[in-house]
Amino acid sequence: MSTSTARPRRGSYAKTAERRRRILEAGIRVFAAHGYRAGSIQRIADEVGISVSGLLHHFDSKPALLAAILELRDEQARQFMDDTRQDGVELLRGTIDLVAYNQTAPGLVELHCVLSAEATSAEHPAHAYFVARYDWVLRTMRRAYETAAAEGALVDGIEPEGAARDLTALLDGLQLQWLLADGTFDMAARVRLHLERQLTVPL
Amino acid sequence: MSTSTARPRRGSYAKTAERRRRILEAGIRVFAAHGYRAGSIQRIADEVGISVSGLLHHFDSKPALLAAILELRDEQARQFMDDTRQDGVELLRGTIDLVAYNQTAPGLVELHCVLSAEATSAEHPAHAYFVARYDWVLRTMRRAYETAAAEGALVDGIEPEGAARDLTALLDGLQLQWLLADGTFDMAARVRLHLERQLTVPL
DNA sequence: GTCTATAATGCGATAGAC
DNA sequence: GTCTATCGCATTATAGAC
Questions:
Q1: Which residues contact B17 (CB under 8 A, 6 or more apart)?
Q2: What average pLDDT score do residues A94-101 get?
């Protein structure tokens, strides 16, 4: 899943940047609601108010648009969980904040939920992306638990690798329930409770 | 999501039943791999070796086929978790067995994972089905925790409703990881560990 | 019960005008 | 940079022959 920035070299690009931004936003909405495979660039173009050809001028193909969307989402998420600066209990605390933020953006939650499930299939254009992403998430979480353990902040009997898996699973599973239940419970509160049972320090 | 059994009234139906069974199996494969919306009855018919028209003779429409598949899956699952007979710790123990069984049927895991995420959208033909199903699962799980608590088998501070939510989320989240990781870890072992931390009795 | 034929629609992508 | 026009293909579903 590579990017093609392909910016022009001079002049005023504000309009183009704006168009691209609107296409990406509409793409998130459509792929979240229908998935990637069943979501059409036709519909995305309609939402923006341009033609399909107009859309394909900005993004060479449907998979290219998907790649750009995933990249944008990662960039936004990185603002909440900067793995290079946070670690240990601090990072686990950041997870609660991220979940709380997600609750204000149902569209992004739905996009992740639908695309990750769809990308389970080996032939899906985002399969490699999600495999790599979960690998990274699990490694980051495990490191956080390991650091917490080294600081004596981890309850006895909690093993970092398994705890990382469980926490990640809890996040994803809660999101599914939250979407099906129309956002009628507090995900962040549940994650906080889960972490409080694993840590010896206050959150 | 209603069913149209519509059986003929006499004669030998072995052949028809066999055809229907093969269509359902192929449907599970295709919908698991591509989701409902992107999976085509064309492809399902191809896998069975019949025409699309032939398939639509047995199942009136694409949504009707989906309904039949979900019903079949529920019927199979009911053999593992009979809610009318099991309760409390016994039912929670049964969850581990169900997860262990699921690990032998990756196709069913994928079907559930992809369809439940897809059905998050209110317009999806299986939306009402999954909303009702999760409502039932959460109520059943909560009752099991409540019974366990009444028997003094529950660790202090575990609240049944939340625990039911967390356990269900863990199951779903682990399935997603398991599919992305190509089945390279033991889901049942993780669920067992989770339950062992919540219960005061051996599993 | 299964087929062919067909209808009507939607899809992603390309070519070329402006 | 955006458009129209068009291609080729896949989709669900129906009608009617056998």
A1: none
A2: 94
Nearest-Cα distance to chain B for A144, in Å, is 19
Instruction: Name the minimum distance, in Å, from the CA of B26 to any CA of chain A.
Output: 16
Beta-carbon contacts of B11 under 8 Å, excluding residues fewer than 6 positions away, are: none
List the structure tokens of B47.
């896998």
Evaluate if residue B9 carries a pLDDT over 70.
no
Q: Structurally, how many domains does chain A consist of?
A: 2
Helix segments in A39-185, DSSP class H: 41-48, 52-58, 62-78, 88-102, 106-118, 127-150, 160-180
Residue A120's SS3 state is: coil
List the domain range (segments joined by +) for residue A115.
80-203
Kindly determine whether the C-beta of residue B56 is less than 7 Å away from any atom of nucleic acid strand D.
yes
Q: Give tens-digit pLDDT for A123-161.
A: 999 999 999 999 999 999 999 999 999 999 999 999 999
Count interface pairs A-B at CB distance under 8 A. Answer: 127
pLDDT band at A83 (very low <50, low <70, confident <90, very high): low
Whether A4 maps to a domain, the answer reads: no
Interaxial angle between packed helices A88-102 and A160-180, expressed in degrees from 0 to 180 and rounded to the nearest 10: 10
Q: What is the CATH number of the domain that holds A43?
A: 1.10.10.60
φ, ψ at A185 (rounded to 5°): -145, 170
Q: How confident is the model at residue A84 (pLDDT cuts 50, 70, 90)?
A: low
Domain assignment of residue A51, yes or no: yes
Could you give the CA distance from residue B72 to residue A136 in angstroms, rounded to a whole number? 37
Residues A154 and A95 in one domain: yes
A112 touches strand C (CB under 7 A): no
Provide the pLDDT for residue A78.
78
List Cβ neighbours of A105 (8 Å cut-off, separation of 6 or more): none
Cα–Cα distance, A174 to A20 (Å, whole number): 32
Whether the Cβ atoms of residue A30 and residue A39 lie closer than 8 Å to each other: yes
Nearest residue to A198 via CA among A145, A142, A150, A138: A145
Question: Nucleotides on strand C with an atom closer than 7 A to protein CB?
Answer: 1-5, 10-16
pTM surpassing 0.90? yes
* 3-state DSSP assignment of residue B154: strand
Q: Considering only A49-58, A73-82, B98-107, which range has the smallest mean pLDDT?
A: A73-82
Please work out, in degrees rounded to the nearest 5, the angle formed at the alpha carbon of residue A61 by the alpha carbons of A57 and A62. 125
